[in-house]
From TrEMBL, chain A:
UniProt-listed PANTHER family: ELECTRON TRANSFER FLAVOPROTEIN BETA-SUBUNIT, PROTEIN FIXA
Name recorded for this polypeptide: Protein FixA
Keywords: Electron transport, Transport
UniProt family annotation: Belongs to the ETF beta-subunit/FixA family.
Entry-linked SUPFAM superfamilies: Adenine nucleotide alpha hydrolases-like
Gene Ontology terms for molecular function: electron transfer activity
Job description of the protein: May play a role in a redox process involved in nitrogen fixation.
Subunit note: FixA and FixB form a heterodimer.
PROSITE patterns: ETF_BETA
From TrEMBL, chain B:
Organism of derivation: Mesorhizobium qingshengii
Protein name as catalogued: Electron transfer flavoprotein alpha subunit apoprotein
CDD domains to which the protein is assigned, alphabetical: ETF_alpha
Keyword Transport: yes
Keyword Flavoprotein listed: yes
Textual note on the cofactor: Binds 1 FAD per dimer.
């Protein structure tokens, strides 16, 4: 079995700061991590490999420094890492990204064996679109299984997969066929601590590095900014509300008095609420 | 923070400001479409919220707004059609087939792309639900057009292009995105981000039937079953009237109990900000924020939440926002209505008691007398 896991290196969003005067993002010194949602996809792939044998290839598109994310993935136990990096990819939106990744996955298939499953995370924490997984599936004509909470069974001989898929108000039980693309839901597993052997192997391994041409891409106009139908025209900080919050003065008051003052202020502003809350509350 | 909508001093992207003429093949794309999400007999309310938004865009463009209903033949689907008219659709496109009874990517993608290619809308809006996101990504890729996810504001420019605004960079800034040279311009919007329009009974007028061009045998994926969420797991945050939420200011997972106690005392739903979900302190379905739930309650109490944009855009629809935070400079005080600079861990128990005192039948009698 061959599984490809697409990951992305993202800035640790909890540490991003916006410059208070210029409203620009201060990226300097912000550490990068593997997109946390992708770790659920990687762990699921590693578990399937451990159970049924085969190989896991991790793939990312990004700047040369994205190699760090791939090495980390090798450290968790992935068998091979491919970095797709080229200045032609700069400025890609989700459509251009899914094009480049799908070309690279096809090339990975030619070079190392056709994948049975392609995994992605549910979404990334920097873009938050959840569009690249479905985009890859469509381009490679893979069956698409998004928001998967559990892989119930995998029958390689029959080429059959059964999953639980999270949807509005419940869980769908789906049966589909390989090859397929699975986007894994968060909280479905926990990424392993890589073994010492994996750490040593990660340090020794060579990350396969491909340019757009190496990945078999012929039409560079479908990559990067030129291949992106969407255009970001404006980046801005939201307007502050004209008046700031009315502050309740805390000086020299007991917590009890403060709390009474706040509840009074709440019901002064929302008088109708008092009856509703009194009716619903305390049950 | 007094000035509004300050632009970044540097250009946002390489092609910003460039407007090429729309290619000839897209020039007859007209009207605004809203996907009416019908699942297990229910129309998702986000579809009506989008019809309200679609109406505004269509009026600015001087075009019509159409609902798109995909479902099994019969009453359920006909009901969805009637509701689409009641919430403002001028016409409805409908594809009815037994194999559209449960959502599956393959037939829904086929039905939607066929409709788009045949009837050519300029704008296509979908709810950013699990279904809507699954479908939108496939449809946009098939049509090779632009798709902007989780928009918080939609508008039409002077030249008639859709201006789709959404949070960016992990929710620290907003950006406005255009799909200049492709049609349709696609966007998804999360439930509760847009307000619910008034429902007005209207006769079912123009309904355009379209045939599905695939048969069940062509569809690989089969639905084996459906397991509804248990009642307790079904947090109805998005549509709750009163919501209490905790953030990193609570210090530790054990202090979430304080939030839950207050919520219980006033009959509220409880939730949390994104970092708490990432730390595993609370489940993802209770996350309030751009990547979680958007809420529009009458009262929202945020305890120990700093108020990053990704949180702000999800709570701004609340009638009254109360913020409790130790940092007087926390951004949450920029959009809260009532603020109190104090430690939420110490204050929440006092607040729970104050509400209980005030709302207990005994004290109500006293107030009345």
């Amino acid at each position: 079995m061959h599984i490809v896991v697409c990951i992305k290196q993202v800035p640790d969003s909890t540490q991003i700061r916006v410059h208070p005067v210029t409203n620009t993002i201060m990226r300097q010194g912000v550490p990068t991590i593997i997109n946390p949602y992708d770790l659920f996809a990687l762990e699921e792939a590693l578990r399937l490999r451990d159970a049924d044998g085969g190989e896991v290839t991790v793939l990312t598109m990004g700047p040369p420094m994205a190699e760090d994310a791939l090495r980390k993935a090798l450290g968790y136990g992935a068998d091979r890492a491919v970095l797709l990096t080229d200045r032609y990819f700069a400025g890609s939106d989700t459509l251009a990204t899914s094009f480049a990744l799908s070309q690279a996955i096809a090339k990975v298939g030619e070079t190392f064996g056709t994948p049975d499953i392609v995994f992605t995370g549910k979404q990334t924490i920097d873009g938050d679109t959840a569009q690249v997984g479905p985009g890859i599936a469509r381009r490679l004509n893979l069956l698409q299984l998004t928001y998967v909470a559990k892989i119930v069974s995998l029958d390689l001989a029959a080429g059959e997969i059964k999953v639980q898929r999270r949807c509005e108000g419940g869980t769908q039980m789906l049966q589909s066929r390989l090859p397929c693309l699975v986007t894994m839901l968060e909280g479905t597993n926990e990424i392993r601590r890589g073994s010492i052997e994996d750490a040593l192997r990660a340090a020794r391994s060579r990350v396969v590095r491909w340019s757009a041409a190496d990945a078999g891409i012929e039409d560079f106009t479908r990559c990067g900014l030129r291949g992106s139908p969407t255009v970001v025209k404006r980046v801005f900080a939201p307007a502050a509300r004209a008046e700031k919050a009315a502050q309740i003065d805390t000086a020299e008051k007991t917590l009890r008095d403060l709390a009474d003052e706040l509840t009074a202020a709440i019901f002064t502003r929302q008088p109708a609420l008092e009856q509703e809350v009194a009716f619903d509350g305390g049950t | 923070m007094a000035t509004a909508n300050r632009e970044t001093p540097r250009p946002a992207a390489g092609r910003a400001g460039i407007k090429k003429e729309l290619p000839e093949r897209f020039k007859d794309y007209r009207h605004v479409w809203v996907f009416i999400e019908l699942e297990r007999g229910q129309v998702h309310p986000v579809s009506f919220e989008l019809l309200g938004e679609g109406r505004k865009l269509a009026d600015k463009l001087g075009v019509q707004v159409a609902g798109v209903v995909l479902g099994p033949a019969g009453g359920v689907t006909q009901h969805a059609v009637a509701e689409a008219f009641a919430y403002g659709a001028d016409l409805v496109y409908i594809v009815e087939a037994p194999l559209l009874a449960d959502y599956r990517n393959e037939p829904f993608t086929k039905a939607m792309t066929d409709l788009v290619v045949t009837y050519k809308p300029e704008i296509l809006l979908l709810g950013a639900t699990t279904l809507g996101r699954d479908l939108a990504g496939s449809v946009a890729t098939t049509l090779l057009t632009g798709l902007t996810a989780d928009c918080t504001e939609l508008d039409v420019d002077a030249d008639g292009s859709l201006a789709a605004t959404r949070p960016t960079f992990g929710g620290s800034l907003l950006c406005t995105i255009y799909t200049l040279n492709f049609r349709p311009q696609m966007a998804t919007v999360r439930p509760r981000v847009m307000s619910m329009p008034q429902r007005v009974d209207k006769p079912v007028e123009r309904v355009i039937q379209h045939k599905l061009s695939v048969a069940e045998d062509d569809i690989v994926t089969k639905v084996l079953g459906f397991l509804p969420d248990s009642q307790s797991a079904k947090a109805n945050l998005a549509y709750a009237d009163v919501v209490v939420a905790g953030g990193l200011g609570l210090g530790g997972a054990e202090n979430l109990q304080l939030v839950k106690s207050l919520a219980r005392a006033i009959g509220a739903e409880y939730g949390c900000s994104r970092p708490l979900v990432q730390k595993g302190w609370m489940s993802a379905d209770r996350q309030i924020g751009q990547t979680g739930k958007t809420i529009r309650p009458k009262l929202y109490i945020a305890a120990g939440i700093s108020g990053a944009i990704q949180h702000r855009v999800a709570v701004e629809g609340a009638d009254l926002i109360v913020a409790i935070n130790t940092d007087p400079n926390a951004p949450i005080f920029d959009f809260a209505h009532l603020g109190i600079v104090t430690d939420a861990i110490r204050f929440l128990p006092a607040l729970t008691e104050a509400f209980t005192r005030r709302l207990s039948p005994h004290s109500r009698d006293k107030l009345a007398s």
